[in-house]
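Explain the record.
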Amino acid sequence: MLDFHYLKLYNAPMTQKVQIGDIVEVPTKKGLAYVQFSHYHEAPPPHMGALIRVLPGFFQARPKEFQTLADQKELYYTFIPLRAFVNRKIFLVVGHAAVPLHAKSFPLFRCPGLPHPQTGNIDQWWLWDGTKSWRVGELTDEQLDLSIQTIWNDVSLISRIEEGWTPRYAAAFVQAARLRDHTKKTPGIKGVRHFLLFKNKSNAEQARKLAENTKFDCEVIDTGSGFMLAVRQGTPLTDEYLEHVAIQLTEIASKTGGTYDAWETAL
């Protein structure tokens, strides 16, 4: 549920104006990142405000010109209270570039339903074109690359850019975050089992071969209504490794017609 008081507060007129095409610098631990202000969403409600294109790459020094960067395919779109960030000098407007032709039209977004209370997975999705939304249920492979309708604060934007977040692997980052939190609260965990779901055995076996090629111990299980691939992950259970494995298995599932479903830990 969007906080409309938040939207009203942060999208109210500010002292310094920002214009469509402005390039905004985002400082991160990996270097300077850049986003471009591409659209402003006003109607119909909810008024989402400033939409930015997150551009690829990290830079150790500010580029002398930005059109070359702006012309590249964006990693994704997201909404932020841009004018508030600029006026509070959280981020700086450092240049301007024409919005490329491929990014002129307002993009199509996907909108999540309620997450499953046990797994945290989202099985029901809507699509939104800035005017209307419609339910699609499960996403197709192509729809996994659609940006997610959300408003981020500055901390969220910086952390997502630093960790290499993309819409396609958003679910993997959620699972990794839940797993990191669980391992920190539960000392003595010796390993993790990840579960990938498939409708047929041949896809599950294909995924098993890919996972075993990356040195995982795997087992295909007939659930009666489909097939499950159980993948065992050992130590070290560092934040970086947990995140890496969740993303890697999500990619394997996507390539072989399955889905990453859940995980369990072993003491």
